Amino acid sequence: MTPPTTRTWARRGRTPTVRVRGRSRRRLSIAALACYKPGQPSRLIYRPSTDARPDGRKSFAWTDYRDLIQDAHQQLGGPIVLVWDNLNTHLAAGMRRYIADRDWLTVYQLPPYAPDLNPVEGIWSILRRTTTANRAFTDPDHLVTAVRQGLRRLQYRHHVLDGCLIGTGLTPAPP
């Protein structure tokens, strides 16, 4: 809920100021899958979650990631090769059992700290620079609505999603 800042233009001597009534410790967690298949447009599948969850948990549990992968499998209609980082919930015992029981799911782990190899990090960067930049959100619902709108806009910009993958260097640039 702390407003991010970026650059803006103003008349000389008149620095724009945004007053924020107070900081909030509320947070929004988002899990996303950037989906790529040769000959098909890129896809973005995501799930936001606020910290106001019934179980009191403030971040995603391995079961939330399991549900996201299951939904992606149904939407994409085929096997999934999942490449992800070493987040502790990705390495949980329940998640390892879930992966082992699914023949349509193959998982590769990125090196311990390699955000430059994760195309979803590029999506978060774009979201911070466009949708949430220079905005003061009035409440958590306002933040969730803005983030959903920004991600929905990105879903239809396949060239931007492709650019996030090309930016990792894991695939050659198109000719």
UniProtKB/TrEMBL annotation:
Q: Name one GO molecular function term.
A: endonuclease activity
The residues covered by the Tc1-like transposase DDE domain are 5-143
- Entry-linked Gene3D superfamilies: Ribonuclease H-like superfamily/Ribonuclease H (3.30.420.10)
Arranged from A to Z, the UniProt key words for this protein are:
Endonuclease, Hydrolase, Nuclease
Q: Which domain of life is it from?
A: Bacteria
What is the protein's name according to its record?
DDE superfamily endonuclease
